[in-house]
Design a protein that fits this description.
By secondary structure, the protein is of the alpha+beta class. The chain contains 6 helices and 11 strands.
Length: 253
């Protein structure tokens, strides 16, 4: 790489550098490629290392870069597109569902969840944990709450524990007729358990997508899915489900 001097601009220098670096990522680097060290980058753009660090931190927050211990700063893969508000509906665990079941237990849900499910606040419900991966890294963690009334014949199924029990609960849920679903999205902060699953620090920004599944005029299940805000983006339309959206291919110069 040659030397690139930044033009004088009215915006903060680190922000202008962030824009220039972003353009360089698109034109000169491929996903997973390691960036030059801070000293070389600062020399290329003629900025102080403190300014460079601010720009790199901003790009990491935006999901353009990933800092990996023992490796360095690498170009991040494309964000995961989370489709919300679609016209197509499907039960969790459908054939094209990218979520992987982890475990299922009977737990008393948070009060707000119990109210949404219209169950008693001291009534245990099936709680299914699932995870979502992209490019070998965790991007989503989900808690799926299912009242026992939604899967009344589950006791007759051989469902010991762990992922096997989670799959059994989902199979039984799919026997019901799905009337529809609705979604709500909000920005939140990662709790300790979510942060651990998503390989982020507690308090890191996350996207929380709450989905209510309706059957026979009642809420048959409630999903609370937490996504890494630095690796995910929301998409709106009728494509249905959660899809991976690959951006333009980045080529090495």
């Amino acid at each position: 790489m040659g030397t690139t001097q930044l033009e004088p601009v009215s915006e903060p220098k680190y922000w202008h550098l962030r824009t220039v670096l972003s353009e360089a990522l698109d034109s000169e680097f491929t996903v997973g490629e390691i960036l030059p060290n801070e000293r070389d980058l600062a020399a290329r753009f003629g900025v102080a290392r403190a300014t460079l660090r601010q720009a790199l931190e901003q790009l990491e927050l935006e999901g353009r870069l990933q800092r990996r211990r023992g490796v360095g700063t690498t170009v991040a893969p494309p964000r995961v597109g989370v489709a919300v508000g679609t016209e197509q509906h499907a039960w969790p665990g459908a054939a094209d569902d990218a979520w992987q079941p982890v475990d299922s237990t009977l737990l008393i849900p948070p009060a707000a969840v119990a109210d949404a499910l219209e169950t008693g606040r001291d009534e245990a419900v099936h709680t299914v944990r699932r995870s979502r991966m992209s490019h070998g890294q965790p991007v989503g963690a989900e808690l799926l709450y299912i009242p026992r009334s939604s899967v009344p014949d589950l006791s007759a199924i051989d469902a010991p524990s762990g992922a096997a029990r989670a799959r059994a609960v989902l199979r039984e849920l799919q026997r019901r007729e799905l009337d529809g679903q609705d979604n709500a999205v909000e920005l939140g902060s990662a709790r300790a358990d979510d942060a651990k699953e998503l390989d982020r620090l507690p308090g890191a920004p996350v996207l929380v997508v709450t989905t209510r599944f309706l059957s026979e005029g009642a809420t048959a299940a409630l999903s609370v899915a937490t996504y890494r805000a630095d690796t995910c983006r929301l998409t709106f339309g009728a494509s249905g489900g959660v899809e991976i959206h690959h951006g333009p291919e980045r080529r090495a110069s």
